[in-house]
Specification:
Length: about 350
């Protein structure tokens, strides 16, 4: 059944002939007038509420909306997704808790804010664990990625898929940072993760964990000198307007993850659970296409707007400085083994 015939049959259901005719006419006139609702989720039996800190049009938001369209079509309208973008449901740390409680059905989040809750998420969040974005994709698309997704289930969540997030680098309002020594004593916002606080300390700077939505004013008012993120987030938040020095040190390549509340997932039939898992996986290449385009567009936009990009960075001192961070967080045999297996992936 196609999306439209599915919608029509749901609209008219088993109601009277009069209702059927009226609704069909209304629907057809709406179609002709080009005013069919952008989302037919009003007709869905169950609409899953999904959170995202990013604004409309950001690749992660679009990916989950596309997943919603697949779900609606594949379940004949039993399931839809409504994405509450722009942190409408709260900042990431809080929405994670709400998802664990089942107040929010789905959440697209960075792995960073999971670090203090789920030890396995610390491994792909380690600085310089991935040699490149390609290495990250090979690992997270494969068995190791599935194993890490599985680790969410002990925390009232179902891990559905990983999305891209490129590489994160430092930016600041004060000066061009050309070497690790330039970071000394500076104040940087990090995601709410102890691992990232220690990462910044190991580089000789000071870290302030802070919600994403407070970073712009934090830099503007001088509470922090800067933050760290990928090109699209540096651009979409307008942080480049208040912190023009962007140093391409690429210390983190942290994947994003799409999770579902265990209670919402378990409320579905086995058939619908399988459809949800598959639609999430199918949204990954769609996200990746948009991500690659957005990274290039964002980099161009901030360069055109006057950001000074420092590209000639010797990463080795940064990498060497991370040894104590690995030692502090990677202590159990399981995590040590996971690090070794990730590093061994070609
Ligand atoms: C972005 C990520 C967001 C959020 C943000 C942050 O790259 O996509 O989910 O975690 O970083 O730094 O808070």
């Amino acid at each position: 059944m196609t999306l439209l015939t599915g919608l029509r049959s749901r609209l008219i259901g088993s109601e009277s002939h009069f209702w059927e005719e009226t609704m069909t006419k209304t629907f057809v006139s709406a179609l002709l007038a080009g005013t069919v609702l952008a989302s037919a989720s009003f007709a869905c039996e169950t609409t899953l509420r999904s959170s995202d800190t990013h604004s409309e049009g950001y690749p992660t938001v679009v990916a989950v909306q596309l997943m919603g369209e697949m779900l609606e079509e594949r379940t004949d309208g039993r399931l839809c997704i409504e994405v509450f973008h722009s942190a409408q449901l709260g900042e990431e740390k809080d929405t994670i808790e709400q998802t664990q409680f089942g107040v929010i059905d789905m959440n697209r989040v960075s792995l960073g804010p999971f670090n203090n809750i789920i030890p396995e998420t610390q491994v792909p969040s380690l600085p310089y664990i991935f040699r490149s974005v390609e290495h990250m994709n090979t690992v997270m698309d494969g068995e190791i990625g599935d194993e890490i997704l599985e680790s969410f289930s002990a925390h009232d969540l179902v891990g559905l898929a990983f999305y891209d997030s490129g590489a994160r680098s430092f930016y600041n309002s004060q000066k061009p940072i050309e070497s690790m020594a330039d970071l000394a004593g500076m104040k940087f916002r990090v995601q709410q993760s102890d691992l990232f606080v220690d990462m910044v300390a190991a580089l000789g700077a000071n870290a302030t964990p802070m919600p994403f939505g407070e970073v712009y004013s934090g830099i503007q008012t001088g509470v922090i000198d800067g933050a760290e993120n990928n090109w699209p987030s540096y651009e979409s938040t307008g942080h480049y307007e208040v912190a023009k020095y962007y140093t391409l040190d690429q210390h983190l390549i942290v994947p994003e993850v799409l999770v579902m509340a265990k209670s919402s997932f378990e409320a579905l039939s086995a058939e619908d659970q399988a459809i949800v898992r598959q639609a999430a996986k199918d949204s990954v290449p769609l996200m990746r296409e948009r991500w690659i385009a957005r990274e290039a567009a964002s980099e161009q936009l901030v360069r055109d707007a006057g950001s000074e990009v420092i590209t000639d960075i010797d990463k080795q001192p940064f990498i060497d400085a991370m040894v104590p961070v690995y030692e502090k967080y990677i202590t159990s045999p399981e995590l040590i083994d996971l690090v070794a297996r990730i590093q061994a992936v070609e």
